[in-house]
Design brief:
Blueprint: H1 30-36, E1 43-47, H2 58-68, E2 73-77, E3 96-100, H3 106-110, H4 136-147, E4 153-156, H5 157-162, E5 167-169, E6 174-176, H6 179-183, E7 187-189, H7 194-205, E8 219-223, E9 231-234, H8 271-276, E10 285-288, H9 292-297, H10 299-311, E11 320-325, E12 328-332, H11 341-348, H12 366-371, E13 374-376, E14 378-379, H13 390-394, E15 399-400, H14 403-416, E16 423-424, E17 426-428, E18 438-439, H15 442-447, E19 462-463, H16 467-477, E20 484-485, H17 493-496, H18 500-509, E21 514-520, H19 524-530, H20 535-551, E22 557-564, H21 571-583, E23 592-593, H22 601-608, H23 628-638, H24 646-655, H25 677-689
Parallel strand pairs: 1-2, 1-3, 3-4, 4-7, 9-10, 10-11, 13-17, 16-20, 21-22, 22-23
Antiparallel strand pairs: 5-6, 7-8, 8-12, 11-12, 14-15, 18-19
Helix pairs in contact: 10-22, 14-16, 16-18, 18-20, 21-23
């Protein structure tokens, strides 16, 4: 694994203010600062979330890390954006403001996939909605500027990370500039920002100016002119032939070279072009992307830019990126290096209270209640699903904690967290079963540009051995005072089938009756655009699930999740999925409609109509289900059993020439009759009560 040499996240000399000691809670008021003996804060974190002192919340993770470096860190949570008073409540920070929208993008947090305003906010005390502004990073940053002119403003978190470059914005239906320019912040940190924030803080504390911090991995900044100390490569020379992913495995079969094949050096490329874009190493070569103005007006160039950016995300070989915005140059340094296990352990074992700040009194915070008794054992994901933001934010290299550290956290929860009844709700992360998995060769990993280690097939260089995870599960469930260890994070079932013993342990001891997994679709067309495996792997996992449930003497059910209206999905695809659901007796209560999140590859497909998994030269066109009616129809196919959807489905089936599926028999998808409105709710309740999640299925896909 490619980890930074042990200069170490915690190896720097502590800032002088460490003499004040560790705060019970990072202060949110002047009174708390006075109690700690502080006359000022060195760093103030402004966040759109309620402050929960738990490592699952970004403000706490970064805040406690910076406290461990010796800095005095204050928190301003959900400030009133109509008045600067809240931003000035802790005074002027000595070093900088750190601004984040919170654990979610503020637009995703407030609006549904259908652009309807949500009634509540899981990250707010009492669930009250509307306590954070739209585009919170922009609003908070500008407020900090107005409150204390000249104080550096650094933006980060998921919202800044996914909007670090020009991006399509679903809510305004246009391509927006990098959030760095719109916020007028000094610096943007992207990805998990521990390394960046530690280096920024110490360098500013040592007297450097914010405009001198130009060489920090995982940061973006702006220049008035292109920096002269880089070898520049124009985007037109990048990736002129070849594909990122084909229907069959495009990589060489030789074990040592399989992942070394990179898209800008595909077989048949002329050697001159390959040499022109050769990698000189980090911080030496910069790719000049199409400008903001170009990608705003040219969808094909937008797709190409998206493709290049995703190919430049491996910290081992990523080059810097430059994109002009109205005469200014956005400069993205290569991503930060992953944390070592030792660093990750220490980060998660900082002195968190694991509780909401006392200021919220008895008000519940739903997001906290969900993770209150859960433990994060790893970060990152090499799945590469095109609709997902995990890899764009956390990266593809898995970073895992040690078994001992995880066990210590379970014991801490058992012994200190109020209300603990003996059940750990989750041992997981972005994916439940990628713990300690990764490339077998650090040399291969360092040069790989593959977007997924498991699609179209599992890479031969990938270690899929689940033994360390099985050992962790067994040790954790045998701890005194622990009744059950549940696994709530999503299981990557194409990896799980590589280790039947893992499935036995999971099914026998860690499933609470239902296990949620995400095939996302049944048809190859949309699956290929999602970079998800075919249904054959699902059937194999289901077979193991049934076998080990029976072995354990338990009646347990799989609950598959599917996405409606994903790019590349046709009406016929959704019909086939609906028929599969009916044949297998599945009735989904909640369904997910595709939401084009900033920077995702699937969002590029949805906006441009081009497939960024293929090169600019190939220019593959593709359709996306756009418009409210089309999206409602695709969602209705997933809920074919809901009488409210029957009129829309009948109309669509007739237009598709499939009126044969309208009728009152078992072979029909929807009935000819429509229930009275006053009896619809009774019908739905009865259907839910009798709903079956049988894993012994009665039919095949379609």
């Amino acid at each position: 694994m490619m980890h930074q040499a042990e200069t170490g996240l915690f190896s720097r000399r502590k800032y002088w203010a460490h003499r004040f000691g560790v705060a019970g809670n990072l202060p949110m008021s002047r009174e708390e600062m006075d109690h700690l003996g502080w006359d000022s804060c060195d760093i103030i974190i402004v966040t759109g979330d309620a402050y929960v002192d738990h490592p699952s919340f970004g403000m706490a993770l970064i805040g406690r890390l910076l406290e461990a470096q010796g800095f005095r860190v204050g928190i301003i949570s959900q400030p009133d954006w109509t008045d600067r008073a809240d931003l000035m409540s802790l005074g002027q920070p000595n070093l900088y403001f750190g601004v984040t929208a919170g654990n979610m993008d503020s637009m995703v947090n407030r609006y549904t996939a259908d652009r309807k305003i949500r009634s509540d906010d899981s990250y707010t005390a009492g669930g009250e909605g509307g306590l954070r502004p739209d585009r919170a990073v922009i609003v908070y940053s500008q407020m900090c500027r107005q409150a204390y002119k000249g104080t550096p403003v650094i933006i980060g978190g998921i919202e800044a990370s996914l909007r670090r470059i020009s991006h399509f914005d679903y809510w305004s239906e246009k391509v927006r500039r990098s959030v760095l320019l719109d916020s007028k912040a000094d610096l943007l940190v992207f990805g998990n920002a521990e390394r960046q924030m530690v280096e920024i803080s110490h360098r500013l504390a040592n007297g450097e100016q914010i405009n001198e911090l130009t060489d920090i991995r995982g940061t973006a900044l702006t220049y008035k002119q292109v920096p002269g100390n880089y070898k520049l490569v124009d985007y037109s020379l990048i990736d002129t032939s070849g594909v990122v992913l084909a229907d069959t495995n495009p990589y060489q079969s030789d074990r040592e070279t399989e992942c070394k094949q990179i898209p800008d050096q595909q077989p048949g490329d002329d050697k001159k072009n390959s040499q022109a874009v050769s990698i000189d190493g980090p911080h030496k070569t910069a790719i000049v992307l199409p400008s903001y103005e170009q990608v705003r007006s040219d969808k094909k160039l937008y797709a190409h830019t998206s493709r290049i950016m995703h190919l430049e995300t491996n910290p081992g070989n990523a080059r810097a990126l430059i994109q002009e915005h109205n005469g200014r140059y956005l400069f993205l340094n290569p991503p930060a290096l992953p944390l070592s296990t030792r660093e990750l352990d220490k980060l998660f074992e900082l002195p968190y209270t694991r509780l909401p700040h006392p200021a919220y009194e008895t008000k519940k915070i739903s997001a906290y209640e969900m993770i209150r008794f859960s433990i994060n054992i790893m970060r990152g994901c090499f799945g590469g699903c095109t609709f997902c933001s995990i890899t764009e934010h956390e990266g593809r290299i898995i970073q895992s904690r040690s078994e001992n550290s995880i066990i210590r956290e379970i014991e801490t929860i058992r012994d200190t967290v109020p209300g603990f009844t003996g059940n750990i709700s989750d041992l997981g992360g972005p994916t439940a079963n990628m713990y300690n998995l990764g490339c077998n060769s650090s040399e291969v990993e360092a040069v790989c540009r593959r977007l997924s280690c498991v699609y179209p097939v599992i890479c031969k260089n990938l270690n899929t051995n689940h033994e360390t995870l099985i050992r962790l599960y067994k040790r954790a469930r045998q701890l005194p005072g622990i009744k059950r260890i549940f696994i709530a994070s999503g299981v990557r079932y194409d990896l799980a089938v590589q280790s039947p013993e893992y499935v036995r342990e999971l099914v026998g001891h860690h499933v609470g009756g239902y296990l949620k997994i995400a095939p996302e679709h049944t048809e190859n067309g949309p699956l290929s655009k999602m970079m998800k495996p075919g249904m054959g792997v699902y059937y194999k996992f289901r077979e193991l699930f049934d076998k080990y449930s029976e072995e354990a003497g338990k009646e347990q059910y799989l609950i598959p999740y599917f996405i409606a209206a994903h790019p590349g999905t046709t009406d016929e695809d959704m019909l086939e999925l609906a028929l599969w659901l009916k044949a297998n007796d599945y009735r989904a209560d909640q369904v997910q409609t595709f939401l084009p999140s900033p920077m995702a590859l699937a969002t590029s497909m949805w906006h441009t109509g081009y497939n960024p998994l293929r090169s600019l030269k190939m220019g593959e066109r593709m359709a996306s289900p756009r418009g409210n009616r089309k999206r409602r129809l695709h969602k209705a196919f997933l809920r074919y059993h809901d009488s409210k959807n029957w009129p829309l489905l009948r109309e669509a089936l007739k237009q598709m020439g499939r009126a044969d599926l309208i009728g009152n028999g078992k072979k029909h998808l929807v009935p000819r009759w429509q229930p009275e409105s006053d009896s619809s709710s009774v019908l739905r309740k009865r259907g839910n009560k009798n709903r079956s999640f049988r894993t012994t299925h009665t039919g095949k896909s379609g």
